[in-house]
Write a sequence for this structure.
């Protein structure tokens, strides 16, 4: 089986200011304080699935050097630079068109670079299961996360009939729900979170893209004439930005017939908010989650403190707060105000 | 009149961690966010009283370069390095013995380097008044601050009879009082804060030291043979640390007869605590006192924020707190816990 992993690493993570800033988005940050950035943890997670030579990273031009530095085992020519952000469909298409030229039967896993998985073994089992299914079928598989709470921040997948052991036909995709609807979904049991992890044969996704977004595939076809030549960079710089900004969900998933899902329960988080990060981190007996060298807390409860580049931090008397210092920026905020951080911190 | 100013700059300001750290004590910090450190403001304050060639700074050896850098107008040979901290009496003696050799009739003002004066004009008038008095008398004058609150953190001066217009005989010195006693002092009106600003003729203070601390003056006499020679540094390094640790208050002020005071009201603070600093700083409509480049506060009240080396700070939801970031250290604490900061932050 010719498996390839495509890591989408173009995000700028503005909700995690100042831990994540455009110069250094969260996928490149050691968010968990474990000595590995999120993108490094993503690669680690897939390392048992295929060799490093089969990894691909699509990222913004400004992050190419950071990817090279953090992921020295990935072939340099597999780091694809988007000259402009065009959402996930063009990003995925670029990688798949490129893979197809050298690996015409590749099975591809597409993954975000900035999510967290707690149970890596189960994760690998699920991905293996999906790959086995797509190897011999024209299936587009999206990994569906079994919901653990009535989350309103994610899109949902409604499962249909069971196809093959753990594989279900997708009945439909649902937008981010209201709290009431999210509670119904949780109760119902037939709904999964859309985690943005996809598995398919490269020919399957290309067929779908040719059918549903022909303007984009024309651009990809034209671009692909330059692939693996000295003209690739210049050609991509000229043509890629002419793609429409469109997500793979909207371009393909919500339209195609052959969509399947594997319900999964491997402790997944998209680390979308400080609050979600706090719930996933190790916490002291007062509920404080701390990443930093010499962080001393007194009379503090349920705080998240992320100050890896400071030598000594003393915090007294904070409850339910976020403290984050990165570079020359500092944030102190109540957790329940975190949705305002992007506004508060903007230029 | 041959006036000299001696600035005592040996303190390490541990109560202001992390704004003030042993590598960079508060006298060298731009505490008020005005572009001048406290020692620079001290020099500015005295600049109308005598030329810069008559300024002397006594400081720890490790701070000599910092003094040179911050006070380039002060003659390098007037920066006296204490090889070890021995409290104020040896510090003052070293400066006075040295001044006496070249300026045998010098009138000397001794001042801390890290206090704040709001009304500089009145300050100069008071110092001028004290200097005029000591020029023609063997008086030891200490500037007494008219108390504005029942402060328990300072020693007090009990005034005696009036001598000459604004000059009073000192009746006695009183230790830091209880709150009850401090209230009585305030009510009484005859008590002043001891600000550690002294004025005297160099011969007057030397006589007093010869009388009350003869062991120390023997050391000073021996040391002084090397003054202004290539052997000074080595001799001081050998002898100065053999002095007893003793304050000028204990060595002289509480024992001598010829002690006088000028009651003064020029908006003085020793900047001893974050709380006292907060009361002296400009504050926004919510009572927040801020020193920093781009500090954005939301839902904050009565905070003191001192983050001059950060480019952007966002703080939401803090009340009555101190936030201070300097170098690789960060403090967040409730103001009413500030007496614990030294403990919390120690090595």
């Amino acid at each position: 089986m010719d498996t390839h992993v495509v890591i989408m690493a173009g995000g700028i993570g503005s909700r995690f200011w100042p831990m994540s800033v455009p110069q250094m988005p969260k996928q490149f940050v050691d968010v968990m304080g474990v000595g590995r950035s999120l993108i490094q943890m993503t690669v680690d997670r897939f390392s048992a699935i295929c060799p490093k030579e089969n990894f691909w990273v699509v990222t913004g031009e400004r992050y190419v050097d950071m990817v090279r530095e953090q992921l020295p085992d990935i072939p340099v020519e597999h780091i694809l630079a988007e000259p402009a952000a065009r959402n996930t469909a063009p990003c995925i298409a670029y990688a798949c068109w490129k893979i197809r030229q050298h690996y015409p039967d590749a099975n591809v896993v597409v993954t975000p670079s900035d999510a967290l998985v707690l149970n890596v073994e189960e994760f690998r089992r699920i991905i293996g299961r999906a790959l086995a299914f797509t190897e011999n079928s024209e299936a587009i598989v999206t990994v569906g996360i079994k919901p653990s709470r009535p989350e309103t921040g994610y899109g949902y997948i409604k499962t249909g009939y069971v196809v093959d052991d753990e594989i279900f036909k997708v009945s439909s995709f649902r937008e981010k729900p209201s709290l009431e609807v999210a509670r119904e979904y949780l109760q119902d049991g037939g709904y999964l979170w859309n985690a943005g992890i996809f598995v398919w044969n490269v020919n399957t996704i290309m067929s779908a893209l040719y059918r549903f977004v022909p303007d984009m595939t024309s651009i990809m076809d034209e671009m692909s004439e330059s692939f693996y030549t000295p003209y690739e960079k210049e050609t991509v710089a000229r043509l890629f930005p002419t793609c429409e900004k469109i997500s793979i969900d909207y371009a393909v998933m919500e339209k195609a017939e052959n969509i399947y899902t594997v319900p999964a329960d491997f402790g997944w988080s998209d680390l979308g908010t400080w609050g979600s990060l706090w719930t996933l981190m190790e916490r002291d007996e007062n509920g404080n989650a701390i990443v930093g060298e010499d962080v001393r807390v007194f009379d503090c409860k349920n705080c998240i403190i992320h100050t890896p580049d400071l030598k000594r931090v003393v915090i007294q008397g904070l409850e339910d707060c976020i403290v984050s210092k990165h570079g020359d920026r500092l944030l102190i905020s109540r957790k329940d105000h975190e949705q305002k951080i992007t506004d508060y911190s903007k230029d």
